[in-house]
Specification:
Elements (H helix, E strand, L loop, with lengths): L38 H12 L3 E7 L6 E8 L3 E3 L8 H14 L6 E6 L2 E4 L3 H10 L3 E6 L5 H4 L11 H18 L9 H4 L2 H12 L5 H11 L7 H31 L7 H9 L12 H13 L8 H7 L7
Parallel strand pairs: 3-5, 4-6
Antiparallel strand pairs: 1-2, 2-6, 4-5
Helix pairs in contact: 2-3, 5-7, 7-8, 7-9, 9-10, 9-11, 10-11
Length: about 325
């Protein structure tokens, strides 16, 4: 089946997607050359040369006209940011094999300079592969603004592939942003954090790596919201909410254990229990608040009677299996 074409305007231009406000600069290819860089970009270029790197080009990107530096950086001075996904050995192996076969490195990382070091929010696997192959330098697009490093994850080709990795990525960003600027609010970071549920789950995953977050995410999406307080204050609330989710997870685990004692054996038991105690399916209008809902569901999970569960109930529930 062919992909559905995007709606277009009378001029034949694709219509803007909902929420997109960008008006491109209209810069042509020759106009992207940056012969006279602004002072902060000129200073960044000077610092790169002092750090042992080489500035290859100064240019403006075509959408917003923002100045960037294309540079070769000493590999020992470049490291991955702490808030991106953990390095996958399988991914690194694929990269090293591909680079070995082509004998080329063709995909520059993105980096920001901080205290003489260079942090990459999207290049963890490529950096690891280059180091394994013995490279001494890496090609990078160096962005002057430190804050952009968090937004770049929205474009990241190495973005987390599963819920746990994504949630941990979000919570690492959360802690780092709270440290750098505790006055910013969650709603102002909607691009970086993606959704409130990921922040709560991230704090929960920090404490319990085998948490079945996939079973709880649909509930959280209904009742979790971006907090109005600055990050320095809302961080503590996120940790508290994570504790509420973990208490519910304990109650669900106890209910699953009782079902197994009764002879039920299925990879969908946790999803079944969550669906069994979740009242949102039958509610019309606004759902209860975060605490009220989880208090109700936790109580129901602790009181779940396996004697009232039939095998056909489990068969109908379906849902995602428990995460490993």
């Amino acid at each position: 089946m062919a992909p559905r074409a995007r709606p277009v305007t009378k001029r034949g231009v694709p219509r803007k997607r909902k929420g997109v406000k960008l008006e491109p600069t209209g810069l042509t290819a020759p106009e992207l050359r940056l012969a006279d860089p602004p002072p902060e970009v000129a200073e960044l270029a000077r610092q790169i040369e002092e750090d042992g790197g080489a500035v290859l080009a100064l240019y403006r990107e075509p959408l917003g006209g923002n100045a960037l530096v294309f540079a070769a950086l000493p590999l020992e001075k470049v490291e991955r940011t702490a808030f991106q996904r953990d390095v996958s050995d399988a991914h690194v192996r694929k990269l090293t094999v591909a680079m070995d076969k082509t004998r080329r490195y063709l995909d520059p990382i993105i980096a920001v300079r901080e205290d003489g070091r260079y942090l990459s929010p999207n290049g963890g696997h490529r950096l690891t592969a280059l180091k394994e192959l013995g490279a001494k330098a890496v090609l990078a697009l160096v962005v002057p603004e430190r804050r952009v490093a968090y937004q770049i994850l929205a474009l990241n080709i190495e973005k987390a592939h599963n819920l746990r990795e994504k949630a941990l990525e979000v919570v690492r960003m959360y802690r780092d942003l709270a440290r750098l600027d505790g006055t910013v609010k969650e709603a102002d970071l909607a691009l970086e954090l993606e959704e409130p549920a990921l922040a709560t789950l991230g704090f929960a995953y920090e404490q319990r790596g085998r948490l079945s977050g996939g079973a709880y995410q649909p509930v959280l999406k209904r009742v979790d919201a971006f907090l109005p307080e600055p990050l320095a204050a809302s961080l503590a609330e996120r940790e508290r909410r994570a504790g509420v989710v973990l208490a519910f997870d304990d109650a669900v685990g106890e209910a699953v254990a009782r079902l197994k004692e009764r002879g039920f054996d299925s990879p969908y038991l946790k999803a079944f229990v969550v669906a069994r105690v979740n009242p949102l399916r039958f509610m019309k209008g606004e759902p209860p608040g975060f605490d009220a809902l989880f208090e109700q569901m936790t109580k129901k999970a602790r009181g779940l009677d396996p004697g009232k569960v039939k095998s056909e109930d489990l068969a109908r529930s379906g849902g995602a299996p428990e995460e490993s």
